[in-house]
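S.,

Sequence below, as promised.
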Amino acid sequence: MKNLIILIVSALLLNACANKSTFAQVHQISKNTVCSPCSTDSSFEARIKGLLYVSDIGIQCCPNKRTLDTNIALKKVYLHRFYDLKEDQKILLFNDKKLFVDVQFNAVFYTYLEQELKARGIVIVDNNQNNSPYISKIDLNFSAYSARKDSTGLHSKLVGVLKVSDINKDRNFTIRTKQDVEGFKNIKEITFYTHLLIKQMANKAASIISEL
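The prediction came back faster than expected:
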C-alpha cells in the first residue's frame, strides 16, 4: 500500500511538472510569435517548432488591441465555472488509432483566459469579492473536440459555449477555433498543441468579454 501511494504521488508530481513545462513553452512561443489582432477571425500562420502552424486566430494578440481606454471605469469579471469535456470526447485519431488526450481543458482554459483578460486591463475578482450585480460572471462549457493526425499533419477543432451575465446582460456565445500543424508526427507533442488550441479559444473569449 505504501509503495502504491508513493507511485500515485510521483505520477501526480510528474504530471504537474509536465503541465508547468507546457505552460512555459506556450508562453515562450507567444513571446516569439508575431502578434495579430485577436478581435478578428483572420487566418494566422507561424513557424512553431519548425512546423507550419495555421489557425483562425493569432497565438499572440497585438498590445494595442489588448488595452482598455484608461478613461473608462475598470471592467471586473468573476471567473465562475468552466466545464471540461467528457473523457470519451478527448480522442485523437492518430493514423486511424484512437488515443486519449490527457488534458484538463477547463483548467488550461482558465489559466489562459485569466492571462488574456488581465492583459486587456480587466480585473479578476474572487468569490468573496463577487458582491456587485455589475460584475460580469463568466462560465464556459466545452461542447466538442476533434483531432486527427494524417499524412499531412495534425488537424484539430474545439467548440465551447461562453456565457457572460450580470444585471444588464445574460448572453451566450458559441466559440469555435481550429489548428492545422503541417508535418506533425511526434505524438508526445499533442499536449503542447492542445494547449495552443485552448489558448486560441481563450483569446477569442477574452476579446468577446472585453468588447461587451
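Strands lie at 44-48, 51-55, 76-83, 91-94, 97-100, 123-125, 136-149, 153-165, 170-182.

Coffee later?
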